[in-house]
């Protein structure tokens, strides 16, 4: 039989990358097989995301965007071509990343997917009494009505006025405006009512009675007596003081606007992003503002008319509050031929939630409360039933937030996408997911400037037999401790009912390393973040991403630059502001950015190094000032390890800076450059920068939420050593974690479950890791026994 020649179209079975130089990549050239599952691994900061997201996926998206007209491209994000010589064999890339879903209070799991929209159509067709079209069942749509005259031009200078009326029925609760909660301001945090304004009654940060203009407006407004204690104000004075409408008043001969204290506080503090505030302002807002469930809609966000409109004895608020797996069963029971196609689509959507392990969520859950892992899996839902093939799916650590028991299910989903004829690219550290790869690319050997090269390319067995850092650590197994520390106290949690917790009573031991674990959705974060009392002197390092523009860097974020600027200023007899690229010392040509950015409308903008400062960001005159033989730009180009040595002794000794650098080195970031923009840091690096910053906080109890996120197997050892140092220094460390190595290293484990959602919310084990392994009665116990046994 004659050998069949391969068709020309079937020869394109590789994605070829040649000469990739994005971020820290050093002329990387690889070939990735199509229609296979390829895992990219390597230490945090080795260049995985730069290769997969910033090169392959970014170029695929850019090429797709270019197929649209220039008019449409004007509304799309502009993407620059990555720094790479050749990219060949690309297919359409669908990126499923770890980015948290928007924290907009109006966004829920239902609105972020198609489920809520389909339920609104369903209720508008079947519910009784009928309220209106689908928009009438939306808590984001307000009811409005208007009428008036519309002037119509009839030509030849003639006009006619026609009466026009407009009305729209919406489902928004008018009291909370669709948010489900109303804010209440604690007046005792705003002022001391036993004092008068002249005596400095205000306790708001920055409001001083003698010189602050805002305070003078109240004192000289004429609405209140500045010498009378606030507690003695009449009802009329108090109303004007707290809720007075904006009005012009004259203060010291200057026209200013007076308005009540409550609306003033709402505009000045509550309308701003809390994360961007200075720490003392953020602490004030957290003290002064309390959020309570809206008494009118009972947190459902919907108007009374919508809550009264029901189908099969349930309103849309009732079904959105159900766990999705229960809702899927309820929808399965609807046998209405008139909405059959809608029911089929809704059923498929809800079943995808259950299949992906999110059946414990409810559609009314605010999307901002989802963890990074949950958000990523919600984004996966729309792709599970897709008929598309020959697509490149790109995942960023899809196992984040997953218990070892849940990782198997995620692995099955990745393999299913591959078996449909898709190319699946996964950035991952977990051995369980690396093990299912058809092809592995290991980057390194180190992080930052020490990484950016391909150390290994091939099969999992080849990686295991190789000498790379990942290969050596792939089969690492930690043993449970022979002896554990004894607690010197306990945090008592009594009757915890947050989310799915069932009146949980538990004593969290202090003075030890305590790990809280359980399957995803079992109630771990609800127990610790929602139930630990604020009075417990707690420092919480959660998963919220650190914010920062390309002007922010590790030196500015950690506060390291402050003592360095002061030392430079003192040594040279000038102002500290000169040594900030965001202040007086900035290069006037590029305004301290180091680059000149040229906007090219719908095409990607171009960044070119500033010719004036050659990318150093400072004025030439500032660079003449030296400290320890270095100018400020040379200091910012140092790595953390180099700077730690530089500021440790001699004429360049700065103890305050050295302490911060020690903390950065302790969390494994010795390779980072002090002036490296935060936007170039990987997810794992950002979380460790955040951890290093919080290590300076004066707290007795540290709560860490999945600190192994983004950490390579080799880096976990360093994290465990850091946790030990924290405990040995007298701190209490509570870690919410799934990683078996962290569990094995714990002094005490609290396991929640047995399942997720209404199947969880109970403490099913308390004790040492050795006891948990010996009993093996829970899913966590089985996984830990399997891990330490090396099976």
State the gist of this model.
InterPro entries: ABC_transporter-like_ATP-bd, P-loop_NTPase, UvrA_DNA-bd. About 30% of the residues lie in helices and about 20% in strands.
Keywords, please?
alpha/beta, 791 residues, six-stranded mixed sheet, nucleotide-binding
Strand ordering within the main sheet: 5-12-13-3-14-15
The main pleated sheet reads as: 6 strands, mixed
Query: How many runs of DSSP E, i.e. beta strands?
Result: 25
Chain-averaged pLDDT: 87
Helix content: 25-40%
CA-atom Rg in angstroms: 30 Å
Approximate shape: globular
Q: Which consecutive residue ranges, at least 5 long each, have pLDDT under 50? A: none
**Helical stretch tally:** 28
Instruction: Decide which structural class fits the backbone.
Output: alpha/beta
What is the strand content?
Answer: 15-25%
Give structural notes.
With 791 residues, the protein is of the alpha/beta class. The protein has 28 helices and 25 strands. A hairpin with an 8-residue loop joins β24 (748-753) and β25. It starts with 13 loop residues before the first strand and ends with a helix. The relative contact order is 0.11. Keywords: ATP-binding, Cytoplasm, DNA damage, DNA excision, DNA repair, DNA-binding, Excision nuclease, Metal-binding, Nucleotide-binding, Repeat, Zinc, Zinc-finger. Its main location: cytoplasm. InterPro entries: ABC_transporter-like_ATP-bd, P-loop_NTPase, UvrA_DNA-bd. This is UvrABC system protein A.
């Amino acid at each position: 039989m004659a050998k069949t020649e391969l068709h020309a179209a079937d020869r394109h079975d590789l994605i070829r990358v040649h000469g990739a130089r994005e971020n820290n990549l050093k002329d990387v050239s690889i070939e990735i097989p199509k229609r296979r599952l390829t895992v990219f691994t390597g230490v945090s900061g080795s260049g995985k995301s730069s290769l997969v997201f910033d090169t392959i996926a970014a170029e695929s998206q850019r090429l797709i965007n270019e197929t649209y007209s220039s008019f449409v491209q004007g509304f799309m994000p502009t993407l620059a071509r990555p720094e790479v010589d050749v990219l060949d064999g690309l297919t359409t890339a669908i990126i499923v990343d770890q980015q948290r879903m928007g924290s907009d209070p109006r966004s829920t799991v239902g609105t972020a997917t198609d489920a809520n929209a389909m339920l609104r159509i369903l209720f508008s067709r079947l519910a009784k009494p009928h309220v209106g079209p689908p928009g009438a069942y939306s808590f984001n749509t307000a009811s409005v009505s208007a009428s008036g005259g519309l002037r119509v031009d009839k030509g030849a200078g003639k006009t006619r006025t026609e009466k026009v009326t407009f009305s729209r029925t919406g489902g928004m609760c008018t009291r909370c405006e669709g948010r489900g909660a109303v804010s209440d301001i604690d007046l005792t945090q705003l002022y001391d009512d036993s004092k008068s304004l002249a005596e400095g009654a205000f306790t708001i940060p920055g409001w001083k009675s003698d010189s602050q203009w805002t305070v003078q407006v109240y004192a000289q407004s004429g609405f209140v007596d500045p010498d009378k204690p606030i507690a003695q104000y009449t009802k009329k004075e108090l109303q004007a003081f707290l809720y007075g409408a904006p009005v012009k008043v004259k203060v010291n001969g200057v026209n200013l606007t007076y308005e009540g204290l409550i609306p003033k506080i709402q505009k000045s503090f509550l309308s701003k992003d809390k994360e961007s505030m200075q720490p003392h302002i953020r602490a004030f807002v957290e003290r002064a503002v309390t959020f309570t469930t809206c008494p009118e809609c009972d947190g459902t966000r919907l108007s009374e008319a919508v809550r009264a409109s029901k189908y099969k004895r349930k309103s849309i608020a009732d079904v959105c509050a159900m766990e999705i797996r229960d809702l899927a069963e309820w929808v399965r029971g609807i046998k209405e031929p008139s909405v059959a196609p809608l029911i089929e689509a809704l059923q498929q959507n809800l079943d995808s939630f259950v299949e992906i392990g999110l059946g414990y969520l409810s559609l009314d859950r605010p999307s901002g409360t989802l963890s990074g892992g949950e958000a990523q899996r919600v984004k996966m839902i729309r792709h599970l039933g897709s008929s598309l093939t020959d697509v490149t799916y790109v995942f960023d650590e899809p196992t984040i937030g997953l218990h070892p028991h849940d990782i198997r299910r995620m692995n099955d989903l990745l393999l299913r996408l591959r078996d449909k004829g898709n190319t699946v690219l996964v950035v991952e550290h977990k051995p369980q997911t690396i093990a299912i790869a058809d092809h592995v690319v290991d980057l390194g050997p180190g992080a930052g400037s020490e990484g950016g090269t391909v150390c290994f390319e091939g099969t999992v067995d080849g990686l295991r037999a190789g000498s790379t850092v990942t290969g050596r650590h792939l089969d690492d197994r930690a043993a449970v401790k022979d002896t554990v520390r004894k607690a010197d106290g306990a945090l008592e949690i009594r009757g915890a009912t947050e989310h799915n917790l069932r009146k949980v009573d538990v004593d969290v031991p202090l003075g030890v390393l305590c790990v809280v674990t359980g399957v995803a959705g079992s109630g771990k974060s609800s127990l610790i973040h929602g139930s630990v009392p604020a009075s417990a002197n707690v420092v919480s390092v959660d998963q919220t991403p650190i914010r920062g523009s390309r002007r922010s860097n590790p030196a500015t974020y950690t506060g390291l630059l402050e003592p360095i600027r002061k030392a430079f200023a003192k040594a040279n007899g000038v102002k500290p502001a000169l040594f900030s690229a965001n202040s007086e010392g900035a290069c006037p040509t590029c305004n301290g950015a180091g680059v000149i950015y040229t906007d090219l409308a719908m095409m990607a903008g171009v960044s070119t190094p500033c010719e004036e400062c050659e990318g150093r960001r400072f004025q030439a005159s500032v660079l003449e000032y030296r400290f320890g033989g270095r100018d400020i730009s040379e200091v910012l180009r140092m790595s953390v390890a180099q700077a730690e040595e530089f500021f440790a002794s001699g004429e360049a000794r700065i103890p305050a800076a050295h302490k911060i650098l020690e903390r950065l080195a302790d969390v494994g970031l010795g390779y980072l450059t002090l002036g490296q923009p935060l936007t170039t840091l990987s997810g794992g690096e950002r979380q460790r920068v955040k951890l290093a910053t919080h290590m300076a906080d004066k707290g007795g109890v540290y709560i860490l939420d999945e600190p192994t996120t983004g950490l390579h197997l080799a880096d976990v050892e360093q994290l465990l050593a850091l946790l030990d140092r924290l405990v040995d220094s007298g701190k209490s460390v509570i870690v919410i974690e799934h990683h078996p190595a962290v569990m094995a290293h714990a002094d005490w484990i609290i396991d929640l479950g047995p399942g997720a959602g209404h199947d969880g919310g109970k403490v099913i084990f308390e004790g040492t890791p050795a006891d948990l392994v010996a009993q093996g009665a829970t899913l966590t116990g089985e996984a830990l026994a399997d891990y330490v046994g090396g099976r």
